Structure formats: C-alpha cells, structure tokens
Amino acid sequence: MSDRLAALLRPAALGTLAGLVVLAALPFYLTDFWLLTGLFAMAAALGAIGLNLLSGTTGQLSLGHSFFLAVGAYGYIWFAGDDGRSGTHDVTGLGLPTPIALVAAVLLAGVMGGLFSPISGRLRGMYLGVATLALVFIGEHVMNNATTVTGGYNGRAAEPMTFFGFTLTDREPHLEVLGIEFGAYERLWYLALVLLVVGVVVARNLLRGRPGRALGAVRDSEIAAAVMGVPVARYRSAAFVVSSMYAGLAGVLLALVFGRVIPDYFGLALSIDYLAMIVIGGLGSVGGAVAGAAFVTVLPQLFAHYAGALPLVTATGTDGIGPQEASRYLYGAAIVLVLLFSPGGLAGLARRTAAPRRRAAGHGATSRPRTKEPQGADT
Amino acid sequence: MTHAATTHKTDAEPDFTVPELAVRAVTVRFAGLVALDAVSFSVAPGSIHAVIGPNGAGKSTCFNVLSGVYRAERGTVHLGDRELTGLPPHRIAALGVARTFQNIVLTQGTVADNLMLGRHALTRAGFTATALHLPSAVREQHRHRERAREIAEFLDLGAVFDQPVTLLPYGVRKRVEMARALCMEPKVLLLDEPVAGMNADERLRTAEAITAVRDGLGISIVLVEHDMGLIMRLADEVTVLDFGRRIAGGTPDEVRQDPAVVRAYLGAGDDGDNSGNGRNGDNGDARENEERQ
Predict the structure, then answer these.
(1) What tens digit of pLDDT does each residue of A222-265 get?
(2) Which of B13, B105, B111, B143 is the mutation pick for testing A, counting most A CBs within 10 A?
C-alpha cells in the first residue's frame, strides 16, 4: 500500500493529477466558445490515440480515419435516433437508450475496422494509405445517399446523451453548480473528460503490455515479429479494430458536441488533420497524440481569436493581412517549427526537457554509453 | 553463468525434451535460381551444429526455411515428430525454434521490452485483459519479466536491462538478440553469424555464452558462421553448403580435411596453406565480412 502511495507522489503522477484538476475546473471559467474548442480537442484526442496505435505503433498508414469517425457518429445517431423526418428525408432509428447506443456505435466502428482487415492485411505503407483513401470516398457516397440513416446532405440531429433522466443539454434538469449554470457544454465536458481519461489509460496499458510489444515488433520488422511468435496478420487487423473503435468513440463525442452531423465534415481533410496530430504529437506516444490533438484543434482558434491584436494585422474585410490569414500563417509556422526542432514531436520535446532533470535527480544511474541518441529514434 | 539452467523448469512447458531437428531433401527456388538443392542434415539433441559455406551458398536461406520465413518447394523439416514445413513462422516459434538475424533486428524500446517480446508465445494476455489491467495480465507480465531478467543476467546484460537498445554498442545489441531468442525457451536455437562484426574480446565472450547455453540449457544450437576458428572450437558437427548443395558434413576435423570443402570454401590452389589451419580461414572470413558491410 505504501508503494501505491509513493507511486502517487511521484512528480509525473502529481503532474497528471494537477492537470486533471485543472481540466475538471475549466468549465467554471471558460466561455462557451472555449468550452466548445476544448470539447473538440478532447474528441480529437481520442481519435488521435486510435490513429496513433495504428500508424504510430503498428506502422500502418491510414488516410481513412475520418471514415471510422463517421461510422461512430452516424452509428450513434442511428442507434439512438427514432423514426421520423429530418429535413426533406424520412429517417429511421433503433431508439436505443443513448449510453447503449454509444457502446454499440463504438463496437460497430470496430467491426468495420475488422471488415477492412482482409485488405489491410495484404497492403503495406503507401499502398495501404491509398487503399484507405477509398474508404473516405465510399463513406462520402454512402453518407449522402443512405438518407434513411444519415439524413443526407443536410445531416441529421443527434439524440442528446441521457443518463437515467439526466440529459446532457441546457435543460432537463436545470442545473447550477457554485453559481455557474451548467448547460450542454459544461455537462458534455465531464463526459468527454471521463472518456478521454479511460481512453488514455486503456491505450497506455495496451502499449506497455504484451499486445503493445507485439504491435511495435510488427512495425519494426514483420519477419522478426513472426519469428518471435507474433501472428502478424492477426495483430495487424487487431490494430485496425482497436484504432477504429477509438475513432468511433471520437465520432460519437463529436456528434454529441455538434448536435447535428453533416457528411461534409468527414472528408479527406479530416483524416489529414488526424495524421498531422499524431506526427506533431510524436508517433507512438499516447500523451503525444493528446498533445497533438490539442495543438491542431486549439491553436488555430487561439490564433484566430487573438490575431486581431497583432501589429500589422488589419481588420477583416480591409486590405492587408486579416486576422484569419494571420492565424493561418502562424499555425503553419508553428507546425513547421515543431517538426524542425523536435522530430520526435511534442512527446519527444517533453522527453528531452525531462531527461536532464531526471539525470540530475540521480535516476538512470546505470552507466550510459557515450553514444549520442539518434534523433527521433525512440518515438 | 549456469544458474539459468537450474531455474529453467519454472516457466517452461512441462515436456522439455529436446528432439532431433531433421532436414530432409529441402529444395528452395527463387524464380529459377536454386538456392537450396535437396539439402539434408540432422541436428542431434543438445549438440552444436555449424552450417558453413561461401557467400551465397544458401546458409541464410536454410535458416529462413527452418524458421518458416521461406517455404520449401520440396522436402521436409521435422522437429521430433512435428513437421515444421508449411507452418507459419509464429507456429514454428511456439514449437520451440528461436533464431537471431545476421543484421540485428531489434525493436525500439528497452532491452527488457525486446526480451519480453521473446516471451510472446509463452504468455497469454490479450487486448482486453491488458487494456483493463486485469490482475492475471499484470501477474503474468511480472513473472515473465523476472525470467527475462534472469536470462539477461545469464548473458551479462543485467546492467543494461532497462536501457533503450538504440543506446547500446553493436556487440551488446548482438547479445540482446541472442537473449531475446533464449527468452523463447527454445529447444533449437538458430544463430545467424553471432560474432560477425565483433572484436576479438566480444567474439570470445559470445563463444563462451554459446557453450554456456548448450551446457546449461541442453538445447540444440544451429550456427551459421564465417569465423572458422569459432566453428572448429565450438561445433560438434559441421554441414558445408556450396551453391545450395550440401558438399560435405561431419566433425570439424573431418570437414577440414575434406578435399571438396577445401576446394569450394577455402579456395582452390593454395590448399597447402589453408587446409587444416583455422587461423587462415579466420582471416579469409574477416575479409568476407568486410565486403558484406
């Protein structure tokens, strides 16, 4: 038991705890705009953790992540929704209780990932990437045409999450905590936070355990992995299933945050965004995926919000560089800077700033060979 | 160095008898090129068997067939009663055939991570149990990590157990690969050029380690090597390949005197210098090693 206590008092554990407290306190201070941004970031973090397991850890390039996000989002809408009309289309739904619909949507995304495994098991590298591209195009077509499920081009509203009569909306019941009115975003915030913590813990456990080692071996050499007793094809498809389930969960969360899901959102650009998240965050690192998701989601908003205050930036609609353009330049520059100066991404940056401190504290006292660590070798 | 042998029984499967490895008339062809041509040999339980031959003789192809990476076009490989030919590599690994690679193939992470990968077939924890951190998975990981540490110490890797492999020098990484193979608790250990690129000191340590593994664990070892000195010292039996064919076999002394071997392997013409002289063979191979790198 004292071991547990000691483990809880480690700097890293204390830091995590402090971070969680801050995240839990944010709804009391943030405006709706920033809450929304934070919710997007948390949903993106879950999706990025999934893609990272697939591309970062197992080395399977996927451009089809947005497809699995869409499966999660529309899966939830269909499982939880009722028969009725959405815009000009008749829609159907199973009308399941929303928490069950969430689980079912995640499982559905996993099944879709599994169904793709005959293809993913036969293709590697760029070829796999291009094959996953097909998923995005098929997905777009299905989303626009399977109107009874998706509501077509104009999308379909998502049933708000309800736990035993407590809905994650602005009313029902009216809720006020410490003088702050708890609306939909505040309530969703805590759901997202819980899901994110569970997602991070699960991914960490996987990576530190037997499956994670096998997946890493598959990335580094399929032949060596097989010779070590790893059934390579099974692990490759398992990585796809787990990754798709994370994407599905992210999709459900996005559906809840948006309130209404449109097909246009789940395009190729979204897949690229997720690839950017895991590369910026640091391939193969769970914390990196979360940081990368926050970077890609929050930074453009932050720049857009404060760009007006920058010198030389003119008001929107006049000549010169407006706040929108300025924020894009800054965002682009930030990406390039991170990748140039830390090939290991944000996770690599964190490791390198932490390493000298740890050495000074006397950990890692075993004699280190004087070879210089190759950059990005342990990402 | 032999304490691993005494604790060996704790984790290994109940029947740990080392069966004979029998290679019978194995033929491998790559688009018309015959890489192995009806090669046969057998590895007696608990012996060290060397496979030698000039570059391109088919030694590595032979290893790839034994470990299931390549499929034999004809012929069979048996481990005791079990036929290995046609099985996928991970099944062969689970039956107790472990190997190392000529060029080191380690995964990112620490020495411990790599050794634990060697325990893959001996452990059960799946995605769900690991993701949920179930006690069974945690206990299993803990138990096997202890065994991996024992094996690391057995090969003098205890001090670097928690270090990233990318930070380790070449010779040590080579030893990590051997330790990883040993972590599979194999019945047959295939070592592909275990001392290639090593300095004299490292060669000596590896040779000692190989003997210790054989004496301590009683497993069979198949060795592909260019270092003739090492082979003459260690091997109980030698199989000589040339252009995919088995041209000779027997004890190191017999092979050394075989005219076909002298002609094919040590070079025709100056057999007066080379035959029966391990040192010269050694030098010749050092040259070959350099060429390859």
Answers:
(1) 999 999 999 999 999 999 999 999 999 999 999 999 988 889 89
(2) B105
Read off φ and ψ for residue A72, nearest 5 degrees: -65, -45
* Domain boundaries defined on chain A: 23-268
Cα torsion B259, B260, B263, B265: sign: negative
| Confidence bin at A290 (pLDDT 50/70/90) | very high
Which of A206, A220, A221 has its CB closest to that of B127? A206
Whether residue A297 contacts residue A41, with contact meaning beta carbons closer than 8 Å, is answered with yes
Q: Is A368 on the interface with B (CB under 8 A)?
A: yes
How far apart CA B190 and CA B92 sit, in angstroms, is 12
In angstroms, rounded to a whole number, what is the distance separating the alpha carbons of residues B122 and B13?
A: 9
Which tokens is B60 given?
């590595």
User: pTM here?
Assistant: 0.84
Spatial neighbors of B119 by CB under 8 A, at least 6 apart, are B144, B147, B148, B183, B184
**In chain B, beta strands by DSSP E:** 21-30, 33-43, 48-52, 74-79, 82-83, 97-99, 188-192, 220-224, 237-242, 245-250
The SS3 of residue A373 is coil
Is the bond preceding residue A173 a cis peptide, omega within 30 degrees? yes
pLDDT in tens, B68-107: 999 888 999 999 989 999 899 999 999 999 999 888 888 8
Please give the residue that has the higher pLDDT: either A15 or B39.
Answer: B39
Residue from the list B69, B93, B163 with its beta carbon closest to the beta carbon of A229: B93
A77: its two tokens = 């809408």
Predicted confidence at residue A38, as pLDDT, reads 92
Task: Report the Cα A269 to chain-centroid distance in Å.
Answer: 15
* CB of A189 closer than 8 Å to CB of A35: yes
Please state, in angstroms and as integers, the Cα–Cα distance from residue B270 to each residue in A59, A153, A256, A336, B100, following that order. Answer: 51, 83, 82, 62, 34
Q: Do B163 and A367 touch (CB under 8 A)?
A: no
Q: Tell how many helices (H) and how many strands (E) occur in chain B.
A: 13, 10
Question: Can you tell me whether residue B163 is helix, strand or coil?
Answer: coil
B131 and A214 in contact by Cβ < 8 A?
A: no
Check: CB of residue A40 under 8 Å from CB of residue A194: no
User: In the prediction, which pLDDT does B183 show?
Assistant: 93
* B131 contacts in chain A (CB < 8 Å): 202, 205-206
Does the beta-carbon distance from A374 to B166 stay under 8 Å?
yes
Are the Cβ atoms of B117 and A228 closer than 8 angstroms?
yes
Based on the number of CB atoms within 10 Å of its own CB, is B233 exposed (0-12), middle (13-18) or buried (19 or more)? middle
* Residue contact A230–B120, C-beta within 8 A: yes
d(CA B275, CA B260): 11
What does CATH list as the number for B3-292?
3.40.50.300
Better-scored residue on pLDDT, A360 or B56? B56
Angle between the A125-145 and A65-80 helix axes, to the nearest 10 degrees?
30
Name the residue among B107, B121, B125 with its Cβ closest to that of A229.
B121
Give residues 63 to 82 of B whose Cβ lies within 8 Å of A: 67-69
Query: Are the C-beta atoms of A306 and A104 separated by less than 8 Å?
Result: no
Domain definitions of chain B by residue range? 3-292
* A239: closest chain B residue by CA: B127
Spatial distance between the Cα atoms of A227 and A168, rounded to a whole number of angstroms: 51
